[in-house]
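Hello forum,

I keep getting stuck at the same step: I have a sequence, I want structure tokens, and every attempt I make locally crashes halfway through. Rather than fight my setup again tonight, could one of you with a working pipeline run this one for me? It's a single chain of 178 residues.
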Amino acid sequence: MITVISGTNRKGSECLNFAKLYADLLQKHTEEEVKLLALEQIPHDWFHAAMYSEQSPSVAALQDEYVLPADKMVFVMPEYNGSYPGSVKLFIDACSVREYSRNFQNKKAALVGIASGRAGNLRGMDHLTGVLNYLGMTVMPNKLPISSIFKLKNGNGEIADADTLKVMDAHARAFVGY
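Reply #2:
Ran it on my machine without issues. Output:
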């Protein structure tokens, strides 16, 4: 199974649009199950003072459905303050309370950064690579930075830029074979 994580808890973020598109592209290239986890749509009752010793039932359910059964994960994440969103790190931390080594160790990851600016969250992808490597994940070297995201949409709000669609498709195809 491949899990695509839309890596922000901000409602109405463009991140979910890119994550949905990436999940669709993956599904086009594989017969494996592809699941989308949108951090903006999950309960956030797991952020509390005891979260590192007592896992909330809501995060345990997400971990059981999206993290533990996945062989591969794709993190699609916007740039927040020169890095990746804290909600991604918080989710990783919350999952690490239970089944620590089974969550991420010996699994593969792909990173897609999105930004309204020019760098496509390159720095954030590098930061998350260090965390994922520490957890035992192998990160595909070909990271996908997508810049100037608001220029890539058509009048209906859909991602329509031909070059962006082409590189996203090639990246998804490469990750399936990774």
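Residues 43 and 58 are 7 Å apart (CA to CA). If your local run keeps crashing, start a new thread with the error log.
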